[in-house]
Specification:
Length: about 325
């Protein structure tokens, strides 16, 4: 099961700019240069099969190639090791996508299926060892039968094995995310902070840029805490704001530090009033935003139970 950090990373690829830069920077082939990058459109990745079972994919986008739609099927793998059945999974997912397009009468041409580009983004520490072809998973059989077998393939982007020079600039959003995700040592983190400081703050105001900045600050702060690295030296006092706009990574780091302080204070007050917190509630507070923390604090002294404080969408 993926954790909140994985979910936040996945949400970066809910931005069309991230998917665009993933294809432009890390996928081989000249066809990528022919994509109409202004036409990226996310489509549903949830399907119901003929038997009524609900199947959920990761992310599906469509974009025009030479005037026709092509679908990009993006699977993000956060496991520690490769999945030996990935080619089979991809075969099933692509089949469900096609089935859904037929049912909804969304084929680009009558009785013609659109092309699908399947790509797996993997960030595990161990090298990916699974076959990228379904044909390689099928037992040996007579040559005459080989053309009748499924042969689904996918493109693998093994993030930890990519060459470091591919991450050098800020011109590619996917490269920025890959670089931050790979940071390990205190020197790595320090160098990355200096790299961000050289970026002109006024140029980073779009939704995707704000998303990357906030995610990078959260990831760097977590990495720093695990390695006992003090990132507060970047700080001056930051105002409390419910929906902040960050003009630098330092701003985002200061805001993350402020949030962490509010989260810890709320936990201490709750424990003093109601006793030890459940693991689920502790995690919910750890990833809460400022608006949530303010609302819960307002309820703290009048509430008779934890359920009254956290009477929102999720159970306490």
């Amino acid at each position: 099961m993926e954790n909140e950090d994985d979910t936040a990373y996945k949400q970066l690829f809910a931005h069309p700019e991230m998917v665009r830069d993933l294809l432009l920077g890390f996928v081989p082939g000249t066809w990528v240069q022919q994509l109409d990058l202004a036409t990226f459109e996310r489509v549903s990745g949830s399907y119901v099969g003929d038997g009524g079972q609900h199947r959920h994919s990761d992310m599906v986008w469509k974009v025009r190639l030479s005037g026709e739609w092509i679908y990009v099927y993006l699977l993000l793998e956060f496991q520690s090791r490769s999945d030996p059945w990935m080619a089979l999974r991809m075969q099933v997912y692509v089949g469900l996508l096609y089935q859904d397009l037929v049912k909804r009468h969304e084929l680009p041409q009558p009785y013609r299926l659109p092309p699908v580009f399947p790509v797996v983004l993997y960030n595990g520490k161990r090298p990916w060892s699974a076959s990228t072809s379904l044909a390689a998973l099928i037992a040996p059989l007579p040559q005459d039968l080989q053309p009748l077998q499924a042969a689904q393939r996918y493109v693998l982007v093994d993030q930890q094995r990519l060459k470091s020079d591919a991450f050098a600039s800020f011109d590619n959003y996917a490269a920025i995310a890959f670089r931050v995700d790979r940071l390990e040592t205190a020197q790595d983190i320090s160098d990355e902070l200096e790299r961000w400081r050289r970026v002109k703050p006024s140029t980073w105001t779009s939704t995707v840029q704000q998303g990357i900045t906030r995610w990078a600050a959260h990831r760097l702060r977590r990495k720093g805490q695990r390695r006992m690295i003090d990132l507060t030296g970047t700080s001056k006092e930051v105002e409390t704001m419910s929906v902040p706009i960050f003009y630098s990574l330092d701003d985002a780091l200061r805001y993350e530090a402020l949030l962490d302080g509010h989260r810890e204070r709320l936990k201490k007050m709750l424990i003093k009033r109601f006793g030890p917190l459940s693991a689920r509630l502790n995690k919910r507070i750890t990833y809460a935003e400022m608006d949530d923390l303010d609302r819960w604090c307002d309820r703290l002294f009048e509430a008779r139970s934890l359920r009254e404080i956290f009477a929102d969408k999720q159970p306490a």
